[in-house]
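Researcher: Following up on the earlier apo prediction. This time include the ligand. It's zinc ion, with the SMILES given after the sequence.
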Amino acid sequence: MIDHATIDRIIDAAEISDVVGDFVTLRKRGVNMLGLCPFHNEKTPSFTVSPAKGIFKCFGCGKGGNSVNFIMEHENLTYPEALKWLAKKYNIEVQEEEETEEQKQLKDSRESLMIVSGFAQKYFTRYLWEENEGRTIGLGYFRERSFRDDILKKFEVGFAPDGKTPFTEAAQRQGYKLDFLEKTGLTIKRDDWLRDRFAGRVMFPIHNLAGRVIAFGGRILTNDKKTAKYLNSPESDIYHKSRVLYGIYQAKREMTRTDKCYLVEGYTDVMSLHQVGIENVVASSGTSLTPDQIRMVRRFTPNITIIYDGDAAGIKASLRGIDMVLEEGMNVKVLPLPDGEDPDSFAKKMGASGFQEYMEQNETDFIQFKTRLLLKSTENDPVAKARLISDVIRSVSVIPDSITRSVYIKECSRLLGVDEEVLYTEVRKQKHQQTEEFRKREFREQSRRQAAPPQPVQEEPVARPVRLLVEELEFLRFLLKYCTSDLYEEEDEETHETRTLSVGEFMIDELEADELVSENALFKKVFYEVRENLYKENFDPWKHFVYHPDASMSKFATDLLSEKYTESKRWTKAGAFTEKEEDILDVLIPRIVNEYKLRKIKMMMAEIEKAIDKAAADNDFDRVIEEQSIYMNLKRAEKELAKSLGSRTIN
Ligand SMILES: [Zn+2]
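Model: Understood. Below is the ligand-bound prediction.
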């Protein structure tokens, strides 16, 4: 338990923009600050921090709260844990009783795994500096590679004693449960046989963003061919390889300050660069980059430079993964090192200023680099060259920004000796495919947003006799505009003859069959007038309503058809909608109808909820049950509609 006075001190110290700033790059926007939300994936910032109010709020995903809430959410902590986290950050002493055995067990498993990992790190580090074996072998290794002590301490490296179970025994003596030792992978357990996983290895702890140890990498120093040189912790509840970047905790501040991130491969590469003063560096630890890792970097900076070892073999294989980085809207550069050098050796050889200088002079734009590299291997081979072009174009086409894209096209045209126009055509082709994908996604998201509680249309200065809902307006607009257009062919169940169903027939049938025609007077008037005239020859709904004898009706129809207040979110929002609506009526019309229905059903449900409350208050239980059964039916219908809206896609 933490006493109130201490809690007050923590809350006073934990200034919101400072707390959030450890994880999110914030830019001033008036009195507030703005950044990319760490809780959902976004490319344009909607995450706002108000230092004056001491709160954060994301207008994308809705998350919000004070600095303690932020840490709870971000670090997945309980309230007291978040307070302790902040106390540590601001050097506020928290008086707490020693943990008993029982309390150790009670902590939830995740926290236990972190505690065990933290203990292991301290144990390994102490062993490296204080024990004979650690000093001779472990420290000897680092000294031989001329790492300075301050760097070793910064990365909390250590040494795991050789032998069967010296570490496991030490941990158990301290009261750490075997279960957690096994779950973190520190101890290997087979039946009644135990072994330290990392025995005799130099240890590199892997920290999460908040600086807590969640896993280890261990390097063996003997030249035994049978054992892997590097061994990593297995995946666990606290360690997911694809979501972790080595060095991110030590790099995050510098990444924000320099607005740039260097990517290398190994643990010692990261450490060597820190030693020459380059601190905005992380390692993917051997695997190719994952989207989660890219997003983690993008929270701090959109600029990433990938440093490659001198040997070209590995480069080509990892090129493929980079399209993904481009796709996230990041600026990718590449820095190849001279043959035979890795970042570790090269940084040591060149020293701080030499390395910095080399980086500035040799950093190449990724697309240029890729083009040149592939070009070398396709000389005199037209088929390979054609493949190369489409390969490079694929990389260009995923870049979200069109100006950047056109710069690349110009550059590629020069490098490849291909006409710009040809490249543009290729990009358009590729983009078209990607747009299809985007549109499918967008439709799914749209319907998710539709499920939000309904809001009435904003009153506008336009004279409108009756207030209509967005869905009603949209329904009427499509009904009037495309009433007589063909929708699709329908087969008669008995005669098996096909006939063409018009938009008007479909829309009217759908609402009548479900008894969902709006009670709104204006809506009803338009709806039933269309139905009355639908089968009349030469019925032109536009003419019929625009020249209507009833002036209010005429005005309404004019406004509706001139799309004065039907600039619906669908059309203004999704820039990717290039099709004209009349070309995709078969998709749009059922959608509009379903959105209308969903809205109506939600409103009916809200009414019934009130009725149930009232009946319950009156102790009229028969009525409660009756209303509840209606409610359940609507709920089912609602679910069906939401599902159909969610799964609908354009072909
Ligand atoms: Zn968000």
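Model: Residues 37, 39-40, 47, 58, 60-61, 63 surround zinc ion (CB under 6 Å).
Researcher: Noted. I'll compare it with the apo version next.
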